Amino acid sequence: MLGIYEKALPKDISWYERLRLAKTLGFNFVELSIDETDERLARLDWTKSQRKEIRDASFTLDMPILSMCLSAHRRYPLGSTDPSKQAHGLDIMKKAVDLAVDLGIRSIQLAGYDVYYEAKSIGTRHNFIKNLKKSVAIAANKSVVLSIEIMDDPFINSISKFYEIKSQIPSPYLQVYPDLGNLSAWPENQVGHELEKGIGAISQIHLKDTLAVTDQFSGQFKNVAFGAGCVDFIGCLKTLKRLNYSGSFVMEMWSEMSEQPLIEIEKAKAVVLPLLKEAGYA
After folding, report:
1. Which residues pair with 30 in a beta bridge?
2. Which residue among 49, 128, 186, 245 sits deepest, i.e. has the most Cβ atoms within 10 Å of its Cβ?
3. In what order do the strands lie in the sheet with 249-251?
4. Residue 275 CB: number of other CB atoms within 10 A?
């Protein structure tokens, strides 16, 4: 199963048009975005009729929305030193889980940051784990899986670091969402071993290329053309196939405001699809 991140598709179109376009392009599902902007945060307050309209479009087109990229916690982090931001972050989590239930979303991807715009500390780590535990309980109550993405940030930039968190919240409703680009960009990661270590907890995988972090360069984690970065896609995909990974992949792109987003998507597919096929993913 190959999905497409919503932000790859044209922005100013209806959900029916977005889902139809994803199907026309040959994808199996769409990943919805709830980011830190007011526009996308407002989706958490969609009415029942708005949610039904999207579900009806999904059913009619046979194009599900299977996952949610919930990056809103960059603005309202679970690890914040501000109690009001922590509370707002938990409220976002409750609303996101309810939206997932209404739209048929199985997995909510959480960005692996304790805080994003604040200084990190032992305290922000503590707050993150405390509130993540509450979030997992909220999600588990509705049978929704929370999946922490491996990030462009040292806090959780490896599957090994994810397990440091999961060891304190041993729940089947807390899993990991490796981004092959982010995982590969950090030179300390042995990528193949990381995938082997995490195979029992991987819920979904982002396909994205990156430029690696070095002593002189902070890395580039977005808008790197597939095949132009540091990711050994075929090595990663063959490793996952050997490990019997049968979950889905999502092409992560940010071409929604591009003058020619469909051309960019087709170029990316021309790289990604042969790699998936070579690794044994039809």
Report:
1. 4, 65
2. 128
3. 174-177, 145-149, 107-111, 65-70, 29-34, 2-5, 249-251, 205-207
4. 17
Residue linked to tokens 């990711």: 231
- Identify the CA nearest to 191 among candidates 174, 210, 164: 210
95, 4, 20, 10: which is closest to 56 by C-alpha?
20
Q: What confidence tens digit (pLDDT) does each residue in 187-209 have? A: 999 999 999 999 999 999 999 99
In tens, the pLDDT along 130-182 reads 999 999 999 999 999 999 999 999 999 999 999 999 999 999 999 999 999 99
Alpha-carbon distance of 78 to 83, in angstroms, equals 9
> First CA to last CA across the chain, in angstroms?
9
151 contacts 179 by C-beta, under 8 angstroms: yes
Say if CB 267 and CB 227 are below 8 A apart. Answer: no
DSSP result, 170-183 = --TTEEEE-BHHHH
Interval 249-260: pLDDT, tens: 999 999 998 889
The two structure tokens encoding residue 217? 């360069």
CA distances from 15 to 61, 242, 250 (A): 11, 37, 18
Residue 259: the pLDDT is: 87
Count how many Cα atoms sit within 13 Å of the Cα of residue 22 in the half-sphere of its side chain: 32
pLDDT digits (tens, 9 = 90+) for 74-120: 999 999 999 999 999 999 999 999 999 999 999 999 999 999 999 99
Q: For residue 117, with 0-12 CB atoms within 10 Å meaning exposed, 13-18 middle and 19 or more buried, which class applies?
A: exposed
pTM to 2 decimals?
0.95
How many C-beta neighbours within 10 Å does residue 248 have? 18
Structure tokens of 128? 């993150």
Whether the CB-CB separation of 79 and 115 falls below 8 Å is answered with: yes
Neighbouring C-alpha atoms within 13 Å toward the C-beta of 67: 31
For 186, the token pair is 């950090």
